[in-house]
Amino acid sequence: MLNMRVLYPPALVDLNHIPGLESIRRDGDTIKIGALTRYTALEYSPVVQRHLPLVADAVRRVADRQVRNRGTLGGSLCHADPAAQMPLCAVTLGAQIQVVGPRGQRLIAAEEFFVDAYTTAIDPLEVLVEVDYPDCGGRACAFVQHVRRHGDFVTLSVAATGVRLHDGRWTGLRIGLGGLANRPILCAHIGEHLEGTRLDATTIREAANLATVGINPHTDVRGSAEYRTHLAPIYVERVLSMLSERGERG
Amino acid sequence: MSEEIRVSVTVNGRAYERLVEPRRSLADFLRHDLLLHGTHVGCEMGACGACTVLFDGQAIKSCLMLAVQAQGHEIITVESLAGRGPLHALQRAFRDCHALQCGFCTPGFLMVALALERSHRKVDQEALKEELAGNICRCTGYRGIVNAVSRFLEESDERSADA
After folding, report:
1. Which residues of B touch A16 (CB under 8 A)?
2. pTM listed for this prediction
3. Are B36 and B11 in contact, with CB atoms under 8 Å apart?
4. Which residues from A are below 8 Å from B65, CB to CB?
């Protein structure tokens, strides 16, 4: 942001010196990840791979190795790019975001944390310290994204998780869309449409066509509103097919 | 103009101390304050990878960090590969595989390759391309570069097996 001369802050505070914010731990059914955890650490963490497979999958698609070595989970969430991988995963998984300020600590649901493009519910005097994800070890997941060039800013991203029951029916599906609105959104109507189905090709196509319901995408340098509207059903279909295959493989 | 801050860093095993403006990027610090011109500055916004250096052993883009953030840390630049003796194995691999033309992007690729070797992470051809995806070359195409890094990593494995 500084290099692109988008921001001109009068002062910067380097959070890297605060101890204890670079951690990944499991606490009962919650996976707690410190704000300063680097993307590379998420990528190679056995805890993340086992209990947050969606995050493990999506984080490999963030920028490139050098950026993943330096960039942090907290940084990505506070930056709040509406199409970025980490905000979308947080919303799709129903994460709770822990912030601390002079008035103490509070938890904000990911869906309420992202207020607008590049704008969060965090107070200027607060700092994000931790992200708490529900354990998703038992869920299938899939993530897809559309970028103009490898490692570039994301135009559109779609995440999906759900549980495939023994009889082949699916339950608890959560579908998140990034890059189609001013913030990542959870598409409850798509999840409801898929509840109890077997995620067969016809059902998936019907669900994909719901991707643009109630959505009014914007035009920017990453893609026009028309192009985003065109891409949305294609990528929803892709992510659900992937989810279905993964569920069948177990 | 803001007040200058004292920065002590180790670069290629040598300790340096300089007064810098807080706004100074690590890339500019290496080039203008330490006169280590091997680290190249291409896009200045984290896209091209030419300014890649090792920061505590990990490849990072030095245009995306401030010099003051390097306080107390260890940096390795492309100059670490150059000696008076024979070419470094990485230099040899790049020469033998025709992995450079104008050479502007080369320091970045070399540092990513070095970090990869030090990580001892096993990478196949596809994963190697992913690891190199943060660097842009505008003249050779990437085949020679992928081949060179691949050869360097294989030789490095052989060297450590022999040892």
Report:
1. 69
2. 0.95
3. yes
4. 70
